[in-house]
């Protein structure tokens, strides 16, 4: 069962976007959350290739995907690559 995409609170890190409170830049990405067949939950961020996380509860899956997104954004920035924009956000 796949839930509708939901925007997580802003993720800090990386090299492009709006400046955050502590001088870090912020991004908003759509995340898909689904129940795993053998229990727990899986979370995916379609805008960031390979960005996924798991958790025993929805809360844990969301916490883990935030870490995964932060890692991916920082990885893009560290390698001098353009940070992908969430397609849902870019169409607004």
Can you walk me through this structure?
There is one protein chain. The chain has one domain: Double Stranded RNA Binding Domain (2-Layer Sandwich), CATH 3.30.160. Strands 1-5-6-7 form a four-stranded antiparallel sheet. The relative contact order is 0.22. A hairpin with a 5-residue loop joins strand 5 and strand 6. It is built from two helices and seven strands; from the N terminus they run βββββββαα. It is of the alpha+beta class and 92 residues long.
What secondary-structure arrangement, pairings included, does this model have?
Blueprint: E1 6-7, E2 11-12, E3 18-19, E4 25-27, E5 30-35, E6 41-44, E7 52-55, H1 58-78, H2 87-90
Antiparallel strand pairs: 1-5, 2-4, 3-4, 5-6, 6-7
Question: In a few lines, what is going on in this structure?
Answer:
The chain is an alpha+beta fold. The protein contains two helices and seven strands, in the order E-E-E-E-E-E-E-H-H.
């Amino acid at each position: 069962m796949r839930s509708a995409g939901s925007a997580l609170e802003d993720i800090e890190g990386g090299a492009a976007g709006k400046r955050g409170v502590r001088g870090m830049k912020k991004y908003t990405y759509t995340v898909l959350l689904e129940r795993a067949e053998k229990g727990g939950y899986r979370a995916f961020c379609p805008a960031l290739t390979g960005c996924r996380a798991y958790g025993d509860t929805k809360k844990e899956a969301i916490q883990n995907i935030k870490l995964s997104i932060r890692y991916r954004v920082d990885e893009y920035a560290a390698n001098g690559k353009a940070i992908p924009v969430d397609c849902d956000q870019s169409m607004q």
